Amino acid sequence: VATADAGDNPVARHTVAVRQRLLDKGVEADVADRYARTRIYSSEQGSYGSGLGGKVLATGTWDKESELAESYLARMQYGYGPDPKHWGEIPQGVNAYAEQLRGTQAAVLSRSSNLYGMLTTDDPFSYLGGLSLAVRHLDGAAPSLYISNLRDPSTSKVEDAARFLARELQTRQFHPGWIKQMQAEGYAGTLEVVSSMDNFWGWQAVDPDTVRADQWQAFNDVYVNDTLHLGTREWFERSNPNALAQI
Q1: Of 132, 130, 131, 211, the residue nearest 173 (C-alpha)
Q2: Would you put residue 106 in left (φ > 0), alpha (ψ -120 to 50) or beta?
Q3: pLDDT at position 7 over 90
Q4: Fewer Cβ within 10 Å of end Cβ, the chain: N or C?
Q5: Which residue stretches of 2-122 are H helix?
Q6: Where are the beta strands (DSSP E) in the chain?
């Protein structure tokens, strides 16, 4: 597809543009060809993750979101393209992944299980949010973020990420039924709540448009002020006082 020249071919057009940018940065022609056609970028072989999960939470180690973006781009720049002999390599003097991301207008993450949502792990903000952070750093404007909701194959649909997250908060973290089940788990349940809030902060750090001020307030109202009258403070003080302090 990248080499076909018939009709309107955005893949070919994008490949040509990336190749030219790499050439302009002094990359040799054969290397520029290879990275212009490389579609998969990840961390170095032998490592795992984008690095944002831990870095975002270590707020004493960074001051500007540009530091997070540069860290993400450096970590995820290793190419896994058309030639396996060059998997896990990076071109000298240029971040090919960054050149591929320039001009990105939208990014999509799929969710096919009801178990995993936007806040159950740090992966959604580390990867989908990381893409948004990187593009905003490169272009000055964030792309639109979407969730491909495949939980019910008969009604699969693409949804706005912020709306998907808002619904998750209402049906989990701020829902009496979910909270009661967490309370029944004692200490382990408190960790789930703190983890959810940590991952919510992750979204705040990498893509502020995904979260709202009233949602932050709801964490305080539900768990600290116990507006649902579920005995949350007593639960935390009995099972894990440190979790309440973190919230």
Answers
A1: 211
A2: beta
A3: no
A4: N
A5: 10-24, 29-36, 52-57, 65-75, 96-101
A6: 41-42, 78-79, 106-111, 144-149, 157-160
Per the structure block, which two tokens stand in for 55? Answer: 């870095």
Residues 197 and 199: their CA atoms lie apart, in Å, by: 5
CA distance 3 to 119: 40
Polymer length of the chain: 247
**pLDDT tens-digit map of 104-158:** 999 999 999 999 999 999 999 999 999 999 999 999 999 999 999 999 999 999 9
User: Which residue is it, tokens 């212009």?
Assistant: 36
Give the span between the Cα atoms of 27 and 188, in whole angstroms. Answer: 52
Question: What strands lie across the sheet with 144-149, from one edge to the other?
Answer: 106-111, 144-149, 157-160
119 Cβ contact partners less than 8 Å away, ≥ 6 residues apart: 165, 168, 169, 172, 173, 195, 196, 199, 200
d(C-alpha 29, C-alpha 129), whole Å: 32
